[in-house]
Design a protein that fits this description.
The chain is 43% helix and 13% strand. It is built from 17 helices and twelve strands.
Length: 438
Amino acid sequence: MNDPNLPPSAGIPARAAAQAILSAVLRKRRPLDAAQDEVLADAKLAPRDAGFARAIAGETLRRFGQLDALLRECLHKPLAPHRTGPTLEILLTGACELLFLDVPAHAAVDAANRLAARDTKAVHFKALINATLRRLARDGRTMLEAQDAPRLNTPDWLWTRWCETFGEETARAIAQSHINPAPLDILTTQSGFDDARLPDAIVLPGGVLRLADAGRVDILSGFAEGEWWVQDFAASLPTRLLGDVRGRTVIDLCAAPGGKTAQLASMGAQVIAVEREASRMPRLKENLERLKLRAELIEADVRDYAPEARVPFVLLDAPCSATGTIRRHPELPWIKSAADVMSCTQTSSELLDAAAGMVADGGTLVLAVCSLEREEGPEQVADFLRRHAEFRREPISATELFDQPEFINDDGDLRTLPCHFADKGGMDGFYAARLRRL
């Protein structure tokens, strides 16, 4: 969209779509992926324009704290949504284009003016939009230099929690890692995959391949052939805590979209994959079929499911606030709150109790969450052990995690942070505990 030969109206539908996505996220608290799918399905944009819309919406949310601070500095008073229509979204996305997407000032400002002119409410604020964006085009980068980006892009409810849990230095490193989009990590099936076919990939421990800018996943070499699946490096670690599962039965609870199921099946386990959401089952089944892997799929609530017999291994990837995945889901800090953490904690507790009943004597239960919040990880396990005297924590050794002691907390549990492997693109924040039934 930076082509100077494009007419002034070029990119208007893409920008309108980006603003609709942003509105759905910030006003209706819709997840970004769902908002993008809905808006772009209706917009019927060409692939290039759809990509531009995604880039604007995603980067605006990634930098929302900074952009909001800039607008507060430029505007005399907050905008009233019922009077101003999409004016705020026009300003946010216009500022994002100027300062973070390197769109030429004339193109970004002209597009914002055109979008305002198309709306019956925003048209009355066209002069304000024009003046604000022109000021940011002139002074915005200097204003950015004075900002504390990691702090601004992290709302108070998360910043306070992370400082209390990890200390301010680590909290700042976590927040800094969220500024860059997550790379694409892939795991290969047992048949192997010639990584020379993806020459831009780097190899992480455990043979995970990482691509910094993969583009469309479905057209990458080996995808259609079922030679690999997408799974963040950190998300691949909890499964490894089970040890040797070849020929053994493993129940994978809350299994969709299926990364851990695929990983277990590729390790030779006899997998029973349990998933409650009927809408997620087709994707789980399709992924296994593409990978030519087998698992028994069961649609059921974990709390209602009872296996025919207790099994040696159970993996529970519990529902959580997902604050460890903000690199992939930049909307999370702005659409969730501490109340969501409390709600997830109660559900996870019930699922963990149900999972415990599926574990055979001497068997292993692994709880995993893609959360940075202590209530969903260490405190959840501490409460579980108080309720279940028949279980003991089995500490994890660094040798099990590719000699990475920083992945282990003081209790001997797995704790990865988004700032780990920062020089390689980071990773998701994951917590996992290994619990042995006596």
